[in-house]
Specification:
This protein is mostly helical and 66 residues long. The protein is built from one helix and no strands. The N and C termini lie far apart (92 Å). The mean pLDDT is 93.
Length: 66
């Protein structure tokens, strides 16, 4: 029975380690996805800001403010 108990313990330990590794990998992937989403939001906000600035410059020119 000692051999079977040892084998069972090794299998449980291996299963636990595989599960932990999978969860860690899933967390890392989720973190990268969040990072890329944040970068995309920043780029979108910057593009919107640039667009508004350019639009305001054109309006100023048309009004003769410049």
């Amino acid at each position: 029975m000692g051999f079977l108990d040892d084998a069972k313990e090794v299998a449980e330990t291996t299963g636990r380690k595989v599960k932990e590794a999978f969860e860690d990998t899933a967390d890392r992937i989720g973190d990268k996805v969040d990072e890329h989403k944040a970068e995309a939001n920043v780029k979108k906000a910057e593009a919107e800001r640039d667009s508004v600035e350019k639009r305001n410059e054109i309006k100023e020119e048309l009004r003769g403010d410049k």
